[in-house]
């Protein structure tokens, strides 16, 4: 991956950034996403926020090498502290981290989100943490994507302001993804089901205890929920 050739994962994130956006990419590492979009004239301005010095310096280097000074700025900051009021940021992207970490960055930096109208988030795991945060904080999903790259499956969540109510299953699987069930979605959850089934089979051999029984019941519930969603998808395909 480089500034001219994004990974498919980051291309999917890029595709949801509106034309002419003022973008803050938080946890930007090499700043490939904002730099790529700026080179193509897709964003008005970009901020590459990084909490760690090494990645921040990589972001600086990308910006210098691409001659994007004045268009993209790297900032060493924790989470949304990279955003200043005068920036006029309208879009925030956070990619390549776990869902709970992304949700905590959003929660800790709520004040910096005042002028922001769109969030494009790409959790590597536990996307449900972001959907729960969204519901509790006046954001709603307007689109969801899922893709496979190098054997890993990634979700992309696009949020705008608004109220939404999602049930447990929609929080876990995604309201759009569980409805459409593209191949990467089915693969992700079939994998997850197989892994839960394997653990459950092994648990049967362990000596019984209240703790084991509770864990087993919880895993069984989790597995049943996956199987139900996948069965609904097959049912929809038949209709
Ligand atoms: N966004 C890039 C991507 O998707 O390819 C880089 C992902 S990299 C795995 C995660 C980056 O987030 C790291 O460079 C890390 O330093 C940064 N990061 C983690 N927590 C952060 C925080 N609270 N604020 C800013 N950056 C953070």
From TrEMBL:
At the top level of its lineage, which domain of life is listed?
Answer: Bacteria
Q: Name one GO molecular function term.
A: tRNA (adenine(22)-N1)-methyltransferase activity
Which GO terms of type biological process are on file?
methylation
Q: Which residues form a coiled coil?
A: 186-220
User: What does the organism's lineage look like at the top?
Assistant: Bacteria, Bacillati, Bacillota, Bacilli, Bacillales
The cross-references to Pfam families, in alphabetical order and at most eight, read: TrmK
Protein name, per record: SAM-dependent methyltransferase
Q: Which UniProt keywords apply?
A: Coiled coil, Methyltransferase, Transferase
Q: Which organism is it from?
A: Bhargavaea cecembensis
- SUPFAM superfamilies, alphabetized: S-adenosyl-L-methionine-dependent methyltransferases
The keyword Methyltransferase is annotated on this UniProt entry:
yes
Write down the InterPro entries for this protein, in alphabetical order. SAM-dependent_MTases_sf, TrmK
UniProt entry tagged with the keyword Lipid metabolism: no
């Amino acid at each position: 991956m480089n500034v001219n050739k994004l990974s498919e994962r980051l291309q999917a994130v890029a595709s949801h950034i509106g034309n002419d956006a003022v973008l803050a990419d938080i946890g930007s590492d090499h700043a490939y996403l904002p730099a790529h979009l700026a080179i193509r004239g897709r964003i008005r301005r970009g901020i590459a926020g990084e909490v760690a010095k090494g990645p921040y310096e990589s972001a600086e280097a990308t910006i210098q090498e691409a001659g994007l000074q004045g268009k993209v700025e790297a900032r060493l900051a924790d989470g949304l502290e990279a955003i200043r009021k005068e920036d006029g940021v309208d879009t925030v992207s956070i990619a390549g981290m776990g869902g709970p970490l992304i949700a905590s960055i959003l929660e800790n930096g709520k004040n910096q989100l005042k002028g922001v109208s769109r969030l494009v988030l790409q959790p590597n795991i536990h996307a449900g943490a972001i959907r729960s945060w969204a519901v509790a904080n006046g954001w709603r999903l307007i689109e969801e994507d899922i893709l496979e790259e190098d054997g890993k499956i990634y979700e992309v969540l696009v949020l705008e302001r608004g109220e939404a109510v999602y049930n447990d299953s929609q929080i876990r699987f995604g309201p759009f993804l569980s409805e459409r069930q593209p191949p990467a979605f089915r693969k992700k959850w079939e994998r997850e089901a197989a892994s839960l089934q394997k653990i459950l089979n092994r648990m049967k051999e362990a000596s019984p205890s209240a703790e084991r029984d509770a864990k087993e019941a919880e895993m069984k519930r989790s597995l049943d929920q996956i199987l139900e969603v996948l069965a609904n998808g097959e049912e929809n395909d038949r209709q």
